[in-house]
């Protein structure tokens, strides 16, 4: 069997197949273009918007002020671009932006377009152009995410209509869904400006005096829940760095209303920058609160100490202090000042420890740097904790609580917080030891001063206390000034580079030329694919080339397609395409067998219905009309069909000759065709195969070969019965008939095996019922009708 070249594509053949089904292409193209038209008209125009945001390098104003004042230098905190992107796209950040925008009610207009006669296909969203305005009462429940239709009746009244299933009942105060109503359906007539209120809704609809209500077929508005707005904006928002190493983020969004999307992007960026500044200001505010609380107590102590010193001097008339005792008192004063500073530091450490242990110090505790306490380890731990919390915020946008990376970060946060607590406790213990040492030294100096005169000693005590309180007060004032400067000069390092603007002037989703072209391609591809699929699934013989790819048996010719009235076309219409087909077969057969003497011609096929008898009758008739003496034998004694072609007797025939020994001249019958005699089947025997195996059959063939030029035997199909294999030994030439687009390729395996094993000789293939208009190979014969009657 020949193997077909699977890689070769006969474009002309496929073009012919496509052209024969041109009506499918036309219909699909029209439908596709119509669908494209509906899509273009019904799809809302979506535009793309871009903005640019700079993240900076995290050098805050507070940090710069501290460096200016020579406060402890702290290593700057780095940022993760991915975390910042996560924060920008987080639901909480988008909620903050939406709370500052009036997007709660969306207005729509059903235009007066003919497509809307079918259903609401062409709908336009209106933003600040609606001819009416809805004033919501957010203190009550509202039905959200469902169209509320508005039909103007006259200049004073209108009608609302609501119909839907599983409608959310929403609380705008808590921004949560209270319940889902199984079904909502009602219609109500109202006057403009009249409040509508029931257990599910409360609003007032006011008509705009500057806009006309008559330009729309119908109007409706939708009350949007905050969650639905967040979901819509979050799905349309895209954030990405302009380059892999860049700190400039490109924000993009898509929407139908340019003003609406521009406002959203600008508000989102403003909220993001403001949040960053707010977060950084909290550090300075916490420091100021702590220093102010310490100053409140120190100011009272300073006032009391000064009053006591002044009163003591006045009562005891003491103007100066002994120079010798001054040295001791100065030392004592210095030690007291050192003790005061350590006490202040210890109080600050206790304050930080309390915030961390109670949970308030996880991300917003007072930075030790601002107070002037030099602890690089503690500073580093606080910065590490802040960075871990920022990373956690970034991951929390899209990750669940079971996310391994999120759980790892939470573990690192807990570990860092534990280290902070341990470090602060160490600093407190160190302060306690230092204070204890100072107390010991102070006690020694106080003991030495005990020998001074009582008044001088008391004066020195009062002066020492006043100086101590004064120094502590001055120290706190200095640190408060530093903190105030740091807070005043604080600035965010995030900056809006480019405000939102529309990218281009054309929609990104509706491009008519491209859509029509794509629709046309789809409209042509669908029928082409359908034809290719059907052709691939069709296992019948398609033509000569197809036949030659599945068998090596020589090809003899084709028989043109005809009708049921063309059964004996060779005789009745000798100028027909069918008659011409059999002439070509006869000539080809005589040419191929020119070097041999052949008398007996066998005609068979794979199964019934392939035109085997039709071909044997017309080929015999063509031979007889050419002047040859021909006899046609109907050897199919199971399903005889000669009676459809000739007026024959069903009692006398081949069966009676083989079984009853009836004379040959009695079984031979004349046909309407000159020079053509026929031997019909006769009656139907019970043992057809056994009869054909008898010597009587050989005797019959021998006698007929002497009387006639050609003996044509119409045999049963080889796919059903075995008679052909018995009759095969009598035949000089075998004609195998396959029907165009009827015979399955797999049915030829049996005859291919006989041919390859050389058990059958001189066999040729004939394609029957080939429609020239439906095949590329013989398409040229369509013009031959001029030569046919």
From TrEMBL:
Family in the record: Belongs to the CpsD/CapB family. Belongs to the etk/wzc family.
One matching Pfam family: AAA_31
Catalytic activity, reaction form: L-tyrosyl-[protein] + ATP = O-phospho-L-tyrosyl-[protein] + ADP + H(+)
Transmembrane stretches, start-end: 21-40, 514-534
Keyword Isomerase: no
Membrane topology label: Multi-pass membrane protein
EC number: 2.7.10.2
Record organism: Pontibacter rugosus
SUPFAM superfamilies referenced in this protein's UniProt entry, alphabetically: P-loop containing nucleoside triphosphate hydrolases
Protein name as catalogued: non-specific protein-tyrosine kinase
Top EC class of this enzyme: transferase
């Amino acid at each position: 069997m020949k193997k077909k070249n699977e890689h070769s594509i006969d474009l002309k053949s496929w073009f012919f197949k496509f052209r024969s089904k041109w009506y499918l292409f036309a219909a699909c193209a029209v439908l596709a273009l119509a669908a494209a038209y509906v899509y273009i008209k019904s799809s809302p125009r979506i535009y793309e918007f871009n903005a640019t945001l700079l993240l900076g390098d995290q050098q805050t104003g507070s940090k710069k002020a501290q460096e200016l004042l020579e406060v402890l230098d702290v290593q700057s905190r780095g940022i993760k671009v991915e975390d910042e992107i996560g924060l920008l796209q987080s639901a909480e950040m988008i909620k903050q932006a939406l709370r500052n925008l009036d997007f709660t009610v969306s207005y729509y207009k059903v235009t007066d377009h003919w497509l809307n006669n079918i259903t609401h296909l062409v709908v336009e969203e209106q933003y600040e152009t609606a001819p009416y305005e809805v004033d919501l009462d957010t203190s009550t429940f509202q039905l959200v995410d469902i169209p509320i239709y508005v039909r103007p009746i006259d200049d004073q009244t209108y009608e609302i209509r609501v119909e839907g299933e599983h409608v959310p009942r929403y609380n705008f105060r808590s921004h949560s869904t209270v319940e889902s109503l199984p079904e909502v359906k009602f219609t109500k007539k109202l006057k403009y400006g009249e409040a509508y209120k029931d257990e599910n809704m409360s609003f007032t609809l006011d008509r705009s005096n500057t806009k006309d209500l008559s330009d729309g077929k119908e109007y409706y508005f939708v009350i949007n829940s905050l969650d639905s707005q967040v979901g819509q904006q979050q799905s349309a928002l895209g954030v990405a760095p302009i380059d892999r190493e860049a700190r400039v983020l490109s924000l993009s969004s898509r929407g139908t209303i340019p003003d609406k999307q521009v406002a959203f992007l600008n508000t989102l960026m403003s909220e993001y920058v403001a949040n960053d500044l707010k977060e950084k200001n909290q550090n300075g505010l916490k420091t100021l609160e702590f220093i102010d609380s310490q100053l409140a107590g120190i100011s009272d102590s300073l006032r009391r100490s000064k009053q006591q010193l002044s009163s003591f001097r006045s009562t005891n008339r003491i103007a100066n202090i002994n120079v010798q005792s001054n040295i001791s008192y100065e030392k004592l004063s210095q030690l007291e000042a050192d003790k005061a500073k350590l006490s202040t530091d210890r109080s600050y450490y206790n304050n930080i420890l309390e915030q961390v242990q109670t949970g308030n110090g996880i991300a917003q505790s007072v930075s030790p740097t601002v107070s002037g306490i030099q602890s690089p380890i503690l500073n580093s731990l606080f910065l590490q904790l802040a960075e871990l919390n920022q990373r956690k915020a970034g991951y929390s946008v899209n990750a669940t609580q079971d996310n391994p990376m999120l759980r790892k970060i939470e573990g690192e946060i807990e570990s860092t917080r534990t280290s902070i607590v341990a470090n602060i406790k160490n600093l407190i213990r160190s302060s306690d030891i230092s204070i204890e040492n100072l107390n010991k030294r102070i006690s020694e100096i106080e003991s030495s001063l005990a020998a001074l005169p009582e008044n001088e000693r008391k004066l020195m005590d009062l002066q020492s206390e006043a100086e101590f309180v004064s120094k502590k007060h001055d120290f706190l004032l200095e640190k408060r000034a530093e903190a105030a400067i740091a807070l005043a000069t604080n600035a965010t390092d995030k900056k809006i580079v480019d405000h939102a603007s529309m990218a281009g002037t054309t929609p990104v989703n509706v491009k008519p030329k491209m859509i029509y072209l794509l629709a046309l391609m789809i409209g042509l591809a669908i029928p082409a694919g359908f034809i290719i699929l059907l052709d691939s699934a069709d296992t019948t013989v398609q033509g000569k080339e197809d036949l030659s790819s599945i068998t090596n048996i020589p090809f003899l010719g084709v028989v043109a397609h005809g009708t049921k009235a063309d059964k004996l076309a060779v005789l009745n219409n000798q100028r027909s395409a069918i008659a011409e087909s059999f002439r070509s077969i006869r000539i080809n057969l005589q040419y191929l067998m020119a070097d041999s003497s052949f008398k007996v011609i066998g005609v068979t096929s794979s199964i019934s219905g392939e035109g085997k008898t039709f071909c044997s009758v017309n080929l015999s008739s063509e031979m007889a009309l050419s002047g040859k003496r021909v006899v046609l034998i109907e050897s199919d004694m199971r399903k005889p069909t000669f009676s459809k072609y000739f007026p024959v007797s069903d009692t006398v025939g081949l069966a009676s000759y083989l079984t009853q020994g009836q004379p040959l001249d009695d079984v031979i019958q004349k046909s309407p065709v000159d020079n053509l005699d026929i031997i019909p089947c006769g009656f139907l025997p019970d043992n057809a195969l056994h009869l054909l195996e008898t010597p009587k059959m050989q005797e019959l063939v021998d006698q007929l070969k002497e009387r006639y030029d050609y003996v044509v035997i119409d045999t049963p199909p080889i796919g059903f019965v075995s008679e052909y294999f018995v009759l095969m030994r009598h035949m000089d030439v075998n004609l195998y008939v396959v029907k165009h687009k009827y015979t399955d390729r797999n049915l030829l395996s049996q005859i291919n095996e006989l041919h390859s094993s050389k058990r059958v000789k001189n066999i040729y293939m004939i394609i029957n019922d080939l429609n020239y208009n439906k095949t590329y190979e013989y398409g040229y014969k369509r013009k031959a009708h001029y030569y046919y009657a």
